[in-house]
């Protein structure tokens, strides 16, 4: 069975409310974050109120899709049974150019090749009809 046809057996994010809206954009292959229309700051994880100015007004703003590895860890012993066959793997926190940080993975990079400040760009991994996850690749060109 090819990698693409294997059923996805990992825990899935909630696809309701603001989280559902975020993943709906990802399904359309667009990475968008909330941007406060009061102070202009971006935020992620999606929420109703701006942590900086307390405004309840915001919009979904398209991300440029570029960022850098802020930090990562190498998981060698799975804490959830669904990840047992995936070890070792390296979840990364990517700091986007917009200033928000997103937990994901770098798909074309072994854990030992990761480094803080590594330039990455978003790619989308379709999990099923309802879910597409934002993942990252090493940046093809430095901006």
Structure description:
GO terms for molecular function: DNA binding. It comes from Aromatoleum diolicum. This protein has 143 residues and is mainly beta. It is 8% helix and 30% strand. The chain has one helix spanning 17-27; strands spanning 32-36, 42-43, 58-62, 66-72, 92-96, 101-104, 119-126, 132-138. The strands form 2 sheets. The chain has a 5-stranded antiparallel β-sheet with strand order 6-5-4-7-8. The longest helix has 11 residues, at 17-27.
Strand order of the largest sheet: 6-5-4-7-8
Secondary-structure-derived class: mainly beta
Principal-axis shape = globular
Instruction: Report the uncertain regions.
Output: none
InterPro entries: ChsH2_C, ChsH2_Znr, NA-bd_OB-fold, Thioester_dehydratase-like
Organism: Aromatoleum diolicum
Domain ChsH2 rubredoxin-like zinc ribbon: 26-56
Domain ChsH2 C-terminal OB-fold: 60-125
